[in-house]
Amino acid sequence: MKDAVTYELIHNDRASRARRGRITTPHGTIETPVFMPVGTQATVKAMLPEQVEKLGAEIILSNTYHLYLRPGSDVIREAGGLHKFMNWNNPILTDSGGFQVFSLADLRDISEDGVAFRSFIDGSKHFFTPEKSMEVQEDLGSDIIMAFDECAPYPADREYVKNSLERTSRWLERCKAAHKNTEKQSLFGIMQGGMYKDLRKQSAEEITALDLPGYAIGGLSVGEPKELMLDILDDCVERLPENKPRYLMGVGTPDYLFEGVERGLDMFDCVLPTRIARNGTALTSHGQVNIKNAKFERDFTPLDHECDCYTCTHYSRAYLRHAFKSNEMISSMLLSEHNLHFLVETMGKIREAIENDRFAEYKKEFYEKYYGHL
Predict the structure, then answer these.
(1) Active site includes 113?
(2) What are phi and psi of 302, to 5 degrees?
(3) Is 143 one of the annotated active-site residues of the chain?
(4) What CA–CA distance (Å, rounded) separates 190 from 236?
(5) The one catalytic residue among 13, 95, 149, 304
(6) Considering 143, 149, 269, 304, which one is annotated as catalytic?
């Protein structure tokens, strides 16, 4: 039986492991490498779905844990699924809820069966299992569903990480057995193993043995030094199949996007662009701009002279500063629009550079402008 989600390799960059591909899903195609805006609670914060689509985003990520708690996956199922519920007709990826559950260390208890936890909303008791995660994600109707896993913290001792990854592998087998809607949804496995290369190897061998439609790398960008993260990432990518999508979870700063693409990764997500927008920070072609800065009070030029997004073509830095200082909602809306446009546009330029075998040159050009160095 054909998988609901498939991957096609289009071109390998001549001088790096960067690759240009295409993911096909029941709700459309995704050109890769791709950055996925995060719509945690069935909304990309401060953005209309039409705006997200217009800026070129082809897939968004929503959160199983949050939607299970509110409004409830049964409500979304009755509404016709997440696509219809949130008025988004393009591909959707839902995470398993694992990261959120395990980040609530004082509210949860792990066992082989699953995780008992209390709702952050009202303190009510819940129990999540691999089977429950699959059931909830089937209710949501997302195109790509993620396996229920345990994301080990950093730092963590070797024995803990080994036990954690082995439990994650067993849970993946249960996820696969419980996953029934294979014609409309594809299950991706998640590699764990912390900062131990031999454990990463073990995890990769165990999850790829199940021959799933795609694989993610979890447990990175959780507080470890950048040099360590990239060293582990180098090893991780080599362990994953070339004919399946490779997804680095929770990464969204420009440098990590470039570093991930350079190593052969295809998919990325992060709340960063909308989160920093709500705090008055913009991503621009010449680096981050803090719109709160007093020097912008009478600066009537665009936020980014090289950007053609709605914000930059209609509003000045002075107005954006005024809106933020006045606590007006339009500040978050306009800065979120710009930041998402910036990352989506950057990923488009990365894809073009790969197609033309000039990824290294584009990375150098971008870094010199954005960071002031290579």
Answers:
(1) no
(2) -65, 155
(3) no
(4) 11
(5) 95
(6) 269
